[in-house]
Amino acid sequence: MNKKVLYLVHGAVIAALYVVLTMLANALGLANYPIQVRFSEALTILPVFTPAAIPGLFLGCIISNTMTGCMLLDIIFGSLATLIGAFGTYLLRDKNKWLAPLPPIIANTIIVPFVLAYVYHLEGGIPYFMLTVGIGEVISCGILGMLLRTVLQKYRKYIFDVQK
């Protein structure tokens, strides 16, 4: 298969999965605001397997944030946090495997609380939002993401390293 086509397909599938998983979390009241456990953030581990995950996650986050009714600055900065996290995961892909989920956890824990405080004017301070968003990211990226990585590692050559 043509590598450019495969790259586009991987990115598109990842974006679609991100949207579906965010919509599921949104239906359960977990996608937005101070308490966030976006199942879709587990996908931020995927840059370990393919660089196509970086634009896929970014686009998926933009679409998800738009579909869940986020304000424009949230769409921009929330999606940038996911982009930064995904790129950081890609950079750490060959390092200690336990470091891979840290970039999205850190990026979202730093950026999203300011969005919650200054865009939505929610009650609670930045430290509180950092705690709640950080816990959600540890659950999504750290726990669910590492479980996903473990499962996908077994099937890596069939999913990501497709030849011909």
UniProtKB/TrEMBL annotation:
Classification via Pfam families: QueT
InterPro entries in UniProt: QueT
Alphabetized UniProt keyword annotations: Membrane, Transmembrane, Transmembrane helix
TM stretches of this protein: 6-31, 43-65, 71-92, 126-148
Name of the protein in its database record: QueT transporter family protein
Originating species: Simiaoa sunii
